[in-house]
Amino acid sequence: MTTVRHLDIRPSVLYVGTPVMLIGTVNPDGTPNLAPASSYWALGWMLVLGLENDGQTQRNVRERPELTVNFPPPGLWNAVEAIADTTGRVDVPPAKAARYRHVADKFAAAGLTPQAAQHVAPPRVEECALQLEARVARITDGLGDYAIVEAEVQAVHADPRIVAPGTDHIDPRLWEPTIYSFRHYFGIGGEHGHRPTSDTAGAGA
Known about the structure:
mainly beta, Pnp Oxidase, Chain A, 7-stranded antiparallel β-sheet, 3-stranded antiparallel β-sheet
């Protein structure tokens, strides 16, 4: 057996592999805002999101506590990247001024289509096969440059092509999120196995 001698390192980010999201919110003037994010996990139907303190998205959910979470497939990584260095804030924060620019219509800049939500005001992203509508339950401050936003999902919308027929289950063999790993975009590749509790283990057999 080969002994691995690990290196002690200090990488600039710890995004070891997280899903890319496009978060829809509503601006004070009623127009939609769209922002990429990749800090996400879920407990049942509760979402936990990490949002930057100086971004328009966090401002919006504090004032209007609703959002949509849209998961783009890997083929849309260019759309995500097109708005990655933009902000909905007219007053671009000094810390972002060197790299970010204000864009009022993020949907147009990304080449994406707003789609009306059913239970919340912010729009969904039509091109995303998996979309969540949610209402903010709590925002926790004091975490450096980020706040933790907890939101309760009100509805899940899925393209029929990624749903196991006759069920409410997403078939992971048919659906592929975009994974953000150390500032690179990836698909998830082939399946290696599944948990015994999988809802779709036999769907592709």
